[in-house]
Write a structure and sequence with these properties.
The chain folds into 2 domains: about 5-85, ATP Synthase, domain 1 (Sandwich); about 90-135. The chain is about 25% helix and about 45% strand. It has helices at about 90-105, 115-135, and strands spanning about 5-10, 15-20, 25-30, 30-35, 40-45, 50-55, 60-70, 75-85. Strands 1, 2, 3, 4, 5, 6, 7 and 8 form an 8-stranded mixed β-sheet that branches. Helix 1 packs antiparallel against helix 2 (about 115-135). The longest helix is centred in the last third of the chain and has 20 residues, at about 115-135. The termini are far apart.
Amino acid sequence: MADTLHLQIVTPDRLLVREDCDQVQIPGKNGELGILPGHAPLITELQIGEISYRVGTTTQYLAVAWGFAEVLPDKVTILADAAERAENIDVKRAQEAKARAEEALRQAAADLDYDATLYALRRAEVRLAVAARAGQTAAAH
C-alpha cells in the first residue's frame, strides 16, 4: 500500500493542484469524507465546501463549489465546477457577495430565486472561511 495519495484538482479553466499528500478532506454530497492512502474506491458528488489536504505538517485549503471526486487507493481526482486556493480568494468580493445574499433573503421579494441566493450565500461563507484559515485579514464572518 502506498504511503501517500496523488491529488489532482481540476476546474474547467485549469489544473489547480497536482501533488502527493498524506490526507485529503472533501465535502461530499452526503457529508465530509476523510481520505487516507489505501481508501476503498468510490465516486462522490461534491457540494459547496472546503477541501483540505495535508503534506507532512502543512495543510492547504481550497474553496470548492460542486463537482465530483474519484477516490482510488493511491489517487484522488477532483473535477470541480469552481475551486480556488485560500491565497487567491478576494475577501472583499466574498464579503460583498455574502452581504448581497443576506440582504436578498431579508427582503424576500416574490421573484427571489431562493435556491440561487442560498447557493451564493453558502459559497461566500465558504470562501471567507477558507481565506480566514490562510490568515487573510477581514475574513471573519
